[in-house]
């Protein structure tokens, strides 16, 4: 079984907002990183955003130029899951859809070495159910990063029903090695942070939908009234409205309370492809 110090090679699947930041963190911690995405354009965007993010750290004196270049060199983009056969840890950060993630976990189970740990960055989906798609449920775990991963200090770790203590310890130590503070959640829908955050975001959509106030006043209210760095609608755009909707649906289906039922306005934005900042338009438009 891989221990934290033995995690030398990491596979990151999904090179979107989260996967690119996770790849950056693993590379900066000295790991060889294989970054995989089904969309070649996403890989090109990820390489550009990782370079820009590392250069920001150099400009602030938080990273040397040499360490920046070394980190970039440690990341290799790949296009086939079969290339992840030798990694010690896989961190999955693809679309928040259970069936798609399960299919990937089946594939990973078949091609990664027996000792490899399979982690999911899911925002809400049951780790136990993802683990049950594999023949190694004791080596499957939730490793929930926050956006943007290079800046946010938290990782939420979720044990599935069969996750072993060795795997939990290895992932906890690895999370600390990449500079994060760890909290642990039981495997319940939305875990800790999204269980609390997403109802707030949903309520902000209801406030907008029912005409309580303008989007700007809702966001300014929560920024200046509660000292949040972003208002809830701006944050929803930043996270991705598709991700917010998927999480709310998991909360609604899993906890069965109507208070988690997604606001129709959020559903309509996602139906219209207004997914937030990553698509240039969500609640707000981005130049
Ligand atoms: N890489 C490196 N540095 C970065 C960066 C990146 N990707 N993004 C931002 N930064 C740095 C900037 O260089 C800047 O550094 P200095 O203050 O030292 O100059 C600092 O972070 C602040 O950035 P900006 O000035 O560009 O912008 P900002 O002040 O608006 O901060 C923010 C940006 C850190 C994202 C801040 O707005 C924030 O904290 N927003 C809330 C984020 C949040 O709540 N994330 C969690 C979402 S929920 C989630 O992730 C879970 C889920 O499952 C959905
Ligand atoms: P994103 O849309 O930015 O990126 C997802 C990437 O996965 C895309 O580049 C897509 O091409 C790729 N992809 C989709 N299916 C794939 C497959 N089968 N194989 C390989 N690549 C595939 O999404 P994101 O915001 O980075 O979210 C990714 C995951 O991280 C989701 O599970 C989400 O819930 C979770 N998450 C998101 C945030 C956030 O704030 N956005 C925070 C924490 C966790």
From TrEMBL:
User: SUPFAM superfamilies, from UniProt?
Assistant: 6-phosphogluconate dehydrogenase C-terminal domain-like, NAD(P)-binding Rossmann-fold domains
According to the UniProt entry, its GO molecular function terms are: enoyl-CoA hydratase activity; NAD+ binding; oxidoreductase activity, acting on the CH-OH group of donors, NAD or NADP as acceptor
Reaction(s) this enzyme catalyzes, per UniProt? a 4-saturated-(3S)-3-hydroxyacyl-CoA = a (3E)-enoyl-CoA + H2O; a (3S)-3-hydroxyacyl-CoA = a (2E)-enoyl-CoA + H2O
Q: Where are the transmembrane segments?
A: none
Q: Kindly list the biological process annotations in GO that this record carries.
A: fatty acid metabolic process
- Which of this chain's residues are annotated to bind CoA? 53, 60, 123
Q: Name one Pfam family in it.
A: 3HCDH
The organism's superkingdom is given as Eukaryota
The pathway this protein participates in, as annotated, is:
Lipid metabolism; fatty acid beta-oxidation
* Keywords from the named record: NAD, Oxidoreductase
Domain 3-hydroxyacyl-CoA dehydrogenase NAD binding, first and last residues per copy: 10-187
Q: Where is the 3-hydroxyacyl-CoA dehydrogenase C-terminal domain?
A: 190-286
Q: Which residues bind NAD(+)?
A: 14-19, 37, 96, 101, 123, 147, 278
Mind telling me which PANTHER family this protein's record contains?
A: 3-HYDROXYACYL-COA DEHYDROGENASE FAMILY PROTEIN, 3-HYDROXYBUTYRYL-COA DEHYDROGENASE
Assigned protein family: In the central section; belongs to the 3-hydroxyacyl-CoA dehydrogenase family.
* Name of the molecule in the record: 3-hydroxybutyryl-CoA dehydrogenase
Organism of this sequence:
Eleusine coracana subsp. coracana
